Amino acid sequence: MKKYCIADFRMREAEKSYIESLGYNIIASNYNLDLYDEIASHVDISYAKVNNKIIVSPDKFVELSKKINCIVGKTELSSKYPNDIAYNVCIMGKKAIHNFKFTDEVLKQELINQGYSLIDVNQGYANCSIAVIDDNSCITSDMGIAKTLMDNGIDVLFVYEPDIKLLRRTNSTETYQERMFFEYSDMQGFIGGAMANIGDEIVIFGDVNKFLNKDKIVRFIESKGKQIKSFAFLDIIDYGGIITINGEEDM
User: Fold this and answer.
1) How distant is the alpha carbon of residue 227 from its chain centre?
2) How many CB atoms lie within 10 A of CB 164?
3) How many Å from the N-terminal Cα to the C-terminal Cα in the chain?
4) How are strands ordered across the β-sheet holding 3-8?
5) Distance (Å, rounded) from C-alpha 95 to C-alpha 187?
6) Structure confidence at residue 250 (pLDDT)
7) How far apart are CA 43 and CA 231, in angstroms?
8) Angle 202-64-198 from CA coordinates, rounded to 5°
9) Spatial separation of the C-alpha atoms in residues 74 and 104, rounded to whole Å
10) CA trace torsion 225, 230, 233, 236 (10° rounding)
11) Which of 1, 72, 114, 190 is deepest in the core (most CB within 10 A)?
């Protein structure tokens, strides 16, 4: 059965080629004009994976449902916070982390139905902010999240990473995705959106050597028995992570 990976359509060829080399068919997360540039096609903004189920925002549902089984959420996304965070839930083992005042109700009910422990944090961009390493460890640059997760027995590496890139359109009036070009934004990206956990690897979307706290990050990841895949000389970009689907949701 086919394996799929949902990824921001802006992902660079080196990263897409590597994911494809692992046997995944890439499903592009396309641009949503109702969101601001930097997150308009981020995976963690429009999609959430709960065990083997994908909950997706209404604007992405028709597109995704042609390829895999998925559940449509109720929340229509828009650019003004907190109207853009409804699906930005971080899943770590059987724990779900979010500001649950703003979680899409379909997604929240699915978490409850499947027996997830709900850990409430103030940060709405919870999934953006947390790089999950395994079922009980993560990396974050958000002090509030770090404290809450440590209080819940999670092993947390707190690091400040100031040079994670986000992308914006070079022409902010261009509405056709095929004609969009992108440059680095002045906004700072999140560490959770710049990494992905695939099997026994942590894939970094860029060169690990460009992390300010590279040595701490490498030691922490390797201490969890994970290998690191990064891309030499490339700047680190926050794409909103990825979601992998290992075939059981095939149509």
Assistant:
1) 19
2) 24
3) 10
4) 24-29, 3-8, 243-245
5) 29
6) 40
7) 20
8) 10
9) 6
10) -100
11) 190
pLDDT lower than 50: segments of the chain: 249-251
DSSP helix/strand/coil, 40: coil
Give the per-residue pLDDT at 246: 81
| Token pair recorded at residue 100 | 């649950």
What would the pLDDT profile of 7-42 be if each residue is shown by its tens digit? 999 999 999 999 999 999 999 999 999 999 999 999
What does the buried/exposed string (b/e) look like for 222-242 if buried means 16 or more CB atoms within 10 Å of the residue's CB?
eeeebeebbbeebebbbbbbb
Domains of the chain, each with CATH number or no CATH: 3-245 (3.75.10.10)
Strands (E), the chain: 3-8, 24-29, 47-50, 53-56, 71-72, 90-92, 95-98, 117-120, 130-134, 137-140, 155-158, 167-169, 182-184, 195-198, 201-204, 227-229, 243-245
SS3 sequence, 165-205? ECEEECCCCCCCHHHCCEEECCCCCCCHHHEEEECCEEEEC
Residue 92's closest CA among 66, 70, 121, 59? 121
> At which residue do the structure tokens 């395994």 appear?
134
Count of CA atoms in the C-beta half-sphere (13 A) of 214: 11
Token pair of 107, please? 């997604």
Over the range 38-57, which residues count as b (16 or more CB within 10 Å of their CB) and which as e? bbbbbbbbbbbbbeeebbbb
Phi, psi (deg, nearest 5) at residue 65: -65, -15
Report how far residue 208's alpha carbon sits from residue 41's, in angstroms, rounded to the nearest whole number. Answer: 23
Tell me how crowded residue 179 is: count the other CB atoms within 10 A of its CB. 9
